[in-house]
Design a protein that fits this description.
Chain lengths: 330, 281, 272
């Protein structure tokens, strides 16, 4: 044994045996349990909704989805989701229709068109609106927007375009599908424009410069390079916006006016899946009604999940495509 | 048949002559070590003996698996999911490559200094003291910190600002802090993976000086791409190079392992000779 | 063509500006201290001072509880995904989190209703649980991003010393990420403070007394605004605006704080 053994550097610690540390195992189990819990939660949501709507599911089956009826009168109870699905589809679709050009305009404005000085304040404005809670937008809708629409917009639209069934007689107090559409488009505008803005910013500078160097105008460059590049992402943004509009219940229920009929006029009342559920929060009179309300929630969940998954799928497909393109340029 | 070749440069060395082989004590015995990342082999069939209280250098061209090899000694490759190894590394007689060895305990005995300095976002004092505290060496912390920083040739420069952040030091100082951190927990062996590659010549010299002074207490294994450094500082040198297999895959292989003097003045293998004379690599 | 884009932007900005201005102006004009100190008097026929003290108390309790529930779970999920999970599980659970984030708030409300409320009644805790479900994917996502930013060199430095992984994660990785986690939490709180739908089914049948006890249903600001907005009484509307204004200010303040925290944190890490 050499003298070096005695010096400070030779202390040895045993290293056989216990392979797994308690601390490592504990942390991994705990963290893993949390991850498992989150996964189970999603399944639990679906299962519990099915469970809660069992009474209505077994009584009406899939016919519930198409039936236009909602009669809680005991003795004549009959429920169906038809008018609410119609309401959801109409309001969300039109809201998206209105919001999309405006959102694209804002996004383009913030990325290509606006002078630098304006970009920060307008971005702040958009983000402020995104932060406004839906109940507050709904309050504004009832007390400010609705009456304005009722007094100025609806009569004018009815008198000039009344031959189109969409523009029937004006609503009673500004509570109508029309108001709901306007409110929803205001609510999804910030999301769609923020995502689009990020997408436009993400277009590689080389692509844009390449087009400009050819002598194209700024707008031609936007149309020829920016839009095609961002097309996939924008599609995802629109679907996300659609999903958001479908799921919005509070602001819609505040301004939509209620009703169980399918009619052409936008100025009449109605309900969406979300707004009907929210409107009934104070209680259902029978188990069947409660179960039918939960059935509505189940349908809404399915619709939202589909929209969400489609959007996710588009995002992943686009990411892959752009990954390949960038690699090819190397 | 080997011819004595003229070294292509005069190299200053503080190296003393090696003690005779009978007096050398082995600390690592590597036998038939293979390492693979997924399907790509990194090194194949490495066998060598590392001796105690010497500085052993591992040299070779980029991509020959030097870093992979040194990281086998303290099981750091375990962190990479696709990594697999076969063969044995006996440390004080015990195979540390088997699955019933606790890699954490291995690392408490075998410390590592990395290519880029990576001090903790803590004060200079805590950088050195924290490891000691967590590993149960809580007594006399102040003395431990001072001793480690002194051995790392950093004490004089930082003794008045021990509370300053470790990240406020220069690159060379940070690396010496990392060395102090590693030796503060009293390891047996200190592995160094290209410790001076991110440093300027003066900082490099400080670190080489360190190894020379401390090797009576620790065993050093250092990976370096800088031949002159190996010539200056190492007692034993292992030369790795890239070979090609039957299917054309490249892998690293130990070509020659001997006293540094011999590797640089009279290597046995032609590939070694080509590398150290600068004909390739 | 470009002109159309300008037009669209102008219309959009005008609308946004009108909404924000309108809400701010109405809310500010109706603001008074009674709001915070007095209890509501439903169907009041007099002008006796009333406020929404119970709603403010309830919001504090419920949002606080929701954060206490969501934060540890969110961090643990992120730690698992970033430090332990194999890549397949990482994408899988990541997908789960995205799906969870897409569930509408009202559906979460009914879910908690069916799970916890039927048969046993509403309570502040159940409302907080519903809010926590909304917060969870958000907190987890931002924590994952922040953990991924912690350089691997730090983990290697700690592991190389012989420090076990759990200790490395708790003492080196998490403290480094704490700034980002805090920012994410503040943003999640800002988002969830204004949520009405989940609370409608879990904590809405309340009295007028100010209570801090979460085992009963507690009034919250968003639900109070919702109820007041449906009332025909203009005095109720006034209080709704005022409460809405306070809520909005709180949310904006929280968002700004989060952003300030984020820049300060980024500077701290880069500047060192």
């Amino acid at each position: 044994m050499s003298a070096a053994d005695v010096s400070a550097g030779s202390t040895r610690r045993p290293f056989t045996g216990r392979r797994v540390r308690f601390g490592d195992l504990a942390l991994q189990l705990l963290a893993g349990a949390a991850a498992l819990g989150a996964t189970v939660l999603v399944g639990l949501i679906v299962w519990k909704l099915i469970d809660g709507s069992r009474l209505s599911l077994s009584k009406y089956g899939l016919g519930f989805v198409t039936r236009v009826a909602w009669n809680p009168v005991i003795g004549h109870e009959l429920y169906g989701a038809g008018s609410f699905i119609f309401g959801t589809v109409i309001t969300s679709f039109f809201a998206l229709l209105l919001a999309t050009p405006l959102a694209m305009g804002v996004a383009l404005f913030l990325t290509e068109l606006a002078p630098r000085v304006l970009r920060a304040p307008v971005t702040a404005l958009v983000e402020t609106l995104a932060a406004v809670p839906s109940v507050l937008i709904g309050l504004w809708g009832i007390l400010v927007l609705g009456p304005q629409l009722r007094t100025h917009v609806e009569p004018w639209l009815h008198s000039t375009l009344g031959f189109i069934p969409l523009f029937g007689p004006p609503s009673a107090a500004g509570a109508s599908i029309f108001t709901a559409i306007i409110v929803l488009s205001i609510m999804i505008l910030p999301i769609v424009s923020s995502i689009s803005r990020e997408l436009f910013l993400g277009v590689p500078a080389e692509l844009k410069e390449g087009a400009l160097a050819l002598g194209t105008t700024r707008w031609e460059m936007v149309r020829g390079v920016v839009f095609p590049y961002a097309r996939g992402g924008v599609a995802a943004a629109l679907i996300l916006g659609l999903g958001r509009a479908m799921g919005e219940a509070i602001a819609v229920t505040q301004v939509i006016g209620g009703g169980v009929f399918i009619h052409w006029s936008l100025f009449g009342g109605g309900d969406t899946l979300g707004s009907k559920i929210a409107a009934s929060y104070q209680g259902a009179s029978t188990n069947l009604q409660a179960s039918s309300l939960i059935y509505l929630g189940l349908i809404l969940l399915v619709l939202s999940l589909v929209a969400n998954i489609v959007a996710q799928w588009i995002v992943r497909k686009v990411a892959r495509k752009h990954g390949v393109t960038r690699g090819g340029h190397a | 048949m080997s011819t004595t070749i003229e070294p292509t440069m005069r190299v200053e060395t503080r190296r003393q002559p090696l003690p005779p082989r009978e007096q050398l004590e082995s600390i690592f015995e590597v036998e038939g070590l293979d390492a693979i990342y997924g399907t790509k082999p990194a090194i194949k069939d490495v066998s060598m003996v590392v001796y105690k209280n010497l500085v052993t250098a591992i040299i070779g061209p980029s991509g020959c698996g030097k870093s992979t090899y040194i990281r086998c000694f303290n099981r750091m490759n375990d962190l990479i999911p696709s990594f697999r190894q076969t063969g044995t590394i006996r440390y004080h007689g015990q195979d540390i490559c088997t699955s019933n060895i606790d890699p954490v305990a291995v690392r408490r005995n075998i410390g590592m200094v990395f290519q880029r300095p990576n001090p903790f976002p803590k004060s200079i004092y805590d950088n050195v003291a924290w490891g000691c505290r967590v590993l149960g060496m809580k007594d006399g912390l102040d003395e431990r910190v001072e001793r480690a920083l002194t051995q790392a040739a950093l004490w004089d420069e930082v003794k008045d600002r021990l509370k300053a952040s470790g990240l406020s030091l220069s690159g060379g100082q940070q690396q010496r802090l990392c060395i102090a951190r590693a030796i503060a927990v009293e390891p047996d062996v200190v592995l160094m993976d290209e410790p001076a590659s991110a440093l300027d010549p003066i900082a490099t010299q400080a670190i080489e000086q360190l190894m020379h002074q401390l090797k009576s207490q620790y065993t050093f294994v250092i990976v370096t791409h800088n031949m002159q450094q190996a010539a200056r500082v190492a007692d034993m040198t292992a030369f790795f190079s890239i070979s090609r297999g039957e299917e054309g895959q490249r892998y690293g292989e130990l070509i020659e392992y001997d006293a540094t003097e011999k590797i640089f003045t009279a290597p046995s293998d032609k590939r070694t000779e080509d590398y150290v004379t600068g004909r390739f690599g | 063509m470009e002109g159309l884009a300008w037009l669209a932007a102008a219309i959009a900005i005008a609308i946004l500006g009108i909404v924000v201005w309108s809400v701010a102006r109405k809310g500010w004009s109706e603001l008074n201290l009674d709001l915070l100190t007095k209890s509501p008097i439903p169907f009041s026929l007099t002008n006796a001072p009333q406020g929404l003290a119970n709603a403010f108390a309830g919001t504090l309790v419920i949002v606080g509880l929701a954060t206490a529930m969501a934060l540890p779970v969110g961090i643990l999920v992120a730690v698992y995904l970033n430090e332990f999970a194999p890549p397949s599980i990482r994408t899988g659970v990541g997908l789960v989190l995205d799906v969870l984030a897409g569930v509408p708030a009202i559906v979460v409300g009914i879910f908690v209703f069916v799970l916890l409320v039927t048969g046993s009644g509403q309570s502040g805790i159940k409302g907080a649980f519903a809010l926590a479900i909304l917060m969870l994917p958000f907190v987890a996502r931002t924590t994952i991003e922040v953990l991924a930013l912690v350089p691997n060199a730090l983990r290697e430095a700690s592991l190389g010393l012989g420090i076990p992984q759990w200790r490395t994660t708790l003492s080196i990785v998490l403290p480094r990420a704490i700034g980002g986690i805090l920012t994410g939490t503040v943003l999640a709180v800002a988002r969830v403070a204004g949520e009405t739908a989940p609370l409608l089914f879990t904590s809405s049948l309340v009295g007028t007394q100010t209570s801090w006890n979460p085992t009963h249903a507690l009034q919250t600001i968003p639900v109070a605004i919702f109820e007041l907005s449906e009332s025909p009484d203009p005095k109720d509307h006034a209080r709704a605006w005022a409460a809405g204004f306070v809520l909005l200010i709180f949310i904006l303040f929280a968002s700004l704080t989060a952003r300030w925290l984020a820049t300060r944190n980024a500077r701290k890490i880069a500047g060192r």
